Amino acid sequence: METFDYLILGGGPAGLTFANLLREKLPQVSFLVLEKEEEAGGLCRSKDVDGAALDIAGGHFLDVRRPEVNRFLFTFMPQEEWNLFDRDSRIDMGTYEIGHPFEANIWQMPQTEQVKYLKSIAVAGCNLGVPMPERFVEWVTWKLGEMVAEEYMLPYNSKMFGGDLESLGTYWLNKLPNVSFEETLLSCLNRRPYGTQPGHAQFYYPKRYGYGELWKRMGNALGDHILYRMAVVRLNPETKTVTCQDGSAFQGKHIITTIPWRSIQEYEECREDITKSIAGLRSTGTQIRYVPEDLDTKAHWIYVPAPEISYHRILVRHNFCAGSRGYWVETNLDRVTDEGGEYAFRNDYTYPLNTIDKPGIMVALLPYMRERGIYGLGRWGEHEHYNSDLTVERAMRLFEGLTSQKA
Known about the structure:
FAD/NAD(P)-binding domain; 2 domains; single chain; globular; seven-stranded mixed sheet; 20 strands
């Protein structure tokens, strides 16, 4: 069994960032990345489809808001290889589209519709002094009013998260754009959006490649420090060893895990309540399916709340990926009606679910593992819906914390 100073599980953005920081800043340290797929990138991988790149796990873009992160990433894929876009995301309301976020763009609706939504928002619980509820479904109505909840937020999130909205808490909703009733009213009067801009208000996308090209280059930079087709199936927190599907085993003085906790089939010598809590973590998967026709829209992506349509989001490839045509749709695996042919890609783990009991699970799990030199990192290691830029920042902070302690 080989032993390394750092053993990194998963070659997505989190694992690749941590590993490349080790390579650049601590060349004397031994480390190895174990990646189950044939190439690096995790959920940010891309494939060549119909003559251009397609992101096989949904739309991924590089936000401009974290300059430290972008400076680091541009060392692998220089800034001149990226196009900069002002976000154009929309919501398909059936007979018309409006901009996202919904409540900031009600002014784009017919006036009779605007009045209905404004009346509903005015009597939402948050505007009447009603205490904030603890469950997601009640929170949506409390925050946005019945019409926004019933016409957009609840059907859309039901499609995206698989229908079990009653299990979701409210602790994660600070990432949603906040628009007050006063700002909503002003936007209708002045015919422009007010309030906080959503994430990716400006973003980068590669000029010649898919988003996966960045992470592929980061994987290539690691050379023989990364092994592919190495799915981890067993973890022993006491001995800090992992076993892969092919039977090979590795040990790390420190283990950085960026893979879903539930994807590991067995935890050896692990406290029973911890293994039970891991089983309580919930997530959803998606299918990405390519459609070759162009759409008559300038939007980069479109949210689709209509329950009768299986997919919940459209990524309009020809509006951000140079030299391409067509679009792709993203569908929760529970709503997929067919396999979709050669241009469809299945992702078993796409979105961590923010269930009511998740904070308690992670409060027990992460410290228990840290005490044994095992660190959860990124979307799956922390079970948080992080975008790739935030994941990179989290990896940078963990690297600094661990290596400064060692120093």
